[in-house]
Structures are given as structure tokens and as C-alpha cells.
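queue> pop job 88
queue> type: inverse folding (structure -> sequence)
queue> payload:
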């Protein structure tokens, strides 16, 4: 009985560790030019508020290799200068902002996203929203140049439903390596509940 309980415990601990492992969305995991809009289950990527109007998100090699924070590829859209992302709303500057909708089957309360400069005095912006459009948190970088990036991190009390990322206003930046962190509390609660259920058998 004790042996059985211990093996159930081991399985549950391994399971909860897997559940608590961050999900990384990395363009380098795919071939250049791949449409990655829905390639990661539970993570829908789309290009919003662009002048070109195409919603797809692709894995692309940036014009200058240094604009990737990891490997060779970054998130790209289907318009001109595909690695440029902005949050500007004036026509003529709208390369597009990257929107990430989450439907993972577990709550995400923390995200990390590499916001990379591509010339000088760039400012990156990441915003996290609840399902009803309420802004839950935002991260604005300091001044970035073509060789620098910041890993924008947002932690929220409520679950994050979607993200929007790009350069602040008309600043163009690149986006790379998105990390989605499962809520530790829900992983722990789940483990505890399963352990109790296991002991009652
Ligand atoms: Ca990369
Ligand atoms: Ca720029």
C-alpha cells in the first residue's frame, strides 16, 4: 500500500513539474517563412492594426542578424519589413502589432517576451489583457539600440487572456522568444487534490 502511494506520489510530482514548466514559443524552432500563427497548440498569433492587413505571423530572419535575441529567427508579419512591429495607430506607420491569444487549458499569470531594438532610441511595449479587454499589466522598455533587448516580464493577479506587443507608438522593434509561465499555485493545488484523492483509495 505504502509502495503504491509512493509511486502515485512520484507520478504526480513529475506531472506537476511538467505542468509548471514554462511554454516557450521560439521562431527558431521552425523553418524560415513558416506560418506559425496556430502552430503551437493553445497559442494563437496574429498581426493586428497593420496597413497591409494580413493576419499571419511567420518565423522570419530579420534584415540584420543581431536583431534576434536568440538564434537566427524572430516573429514576423506578412508585410514589408516583416520583422518590424509597432503599436502606432496612424496609417503609414502600421507595420502591425503582434497579438497572442492564449487558450492553454491552464492559467497563465506571468509572461516574458524579448523586445529588441533595431536602430536607436527604440522603446518596446508589451501589454497583457483579461478576456474582457481589461488591461492587466504592461511593460515598457528603456531606450534600446540595434544591439540591445529587454526581456519584458509581466506578472498579473488575474489570468492573462491575450497579449499585444510592438514598438511604442512609431518605434519599430523586433520580437523574439515568448515564454508563458503556468501559474504555480494551480499546479500545486492540482497536485494536492490528486494526492488526497490517491490516499483515499
Ligand atoms: Ca529567435
Ligand atoms: Ca526602430
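queue> result:
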Amino acid at each position: 500500500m505504502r509502495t503504491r502511494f509512493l509511486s502515485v506520489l512520484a507520478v504526480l510530482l513529475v506531472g506537476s513539474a511538467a505542468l509548471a514548466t514554462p511554454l516557450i514559443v521560439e521562431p527558431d524552432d521552425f523553418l524560415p517563412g513558416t506560418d506559425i500563427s496556430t502552430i503551437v497548440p493553445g497559442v494563437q498569433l496574429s498581426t493586428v492594426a497593420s496597413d497591409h492587413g494580413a493576419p499571419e505571423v511567420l518565423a522570419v530572419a530579420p534584415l540584420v542578424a543581431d536583431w534576434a535575441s536568440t538564434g537566427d529567427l524572430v516573429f514576423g508579419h506578412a508585410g514589408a519589413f516583416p520583422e518590424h512591429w509597432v503599436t502606432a495607430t496612424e496609417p503609414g506607420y502600421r507595420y502591425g502589432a503582434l497579438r497572442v491569444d492564449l487558450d492553454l487549458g491552464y492559467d497563465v499569470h506571468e509572461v516574458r517576451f524579448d523586445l529588441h531594438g533595431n536602430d536607436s532610441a527604440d522603446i518596446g511595449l508589451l501589454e497583457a489583457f483579461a478576456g474582457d479587454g481589461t488591461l492587466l499589466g504592461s511593460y515598457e522598455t528603456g531606450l534600446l539600440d540595434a544591439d540591445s533587448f529587454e526581456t519584458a516580464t509581466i506578472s498579473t493577479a488575474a489570468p492573462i487572456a491575450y497579449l499585444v506587443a510592438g514598438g511604442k507608438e512609431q518605434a519599430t522593434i523586433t520580437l523574439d522568444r515568448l515564454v508563458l509561465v503556468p501559474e504555480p499555485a494551480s499546479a500545486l493545488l492540482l497536485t494536492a487534490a490528486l494526492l488526497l484523492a490517491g490516499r483515499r483509495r
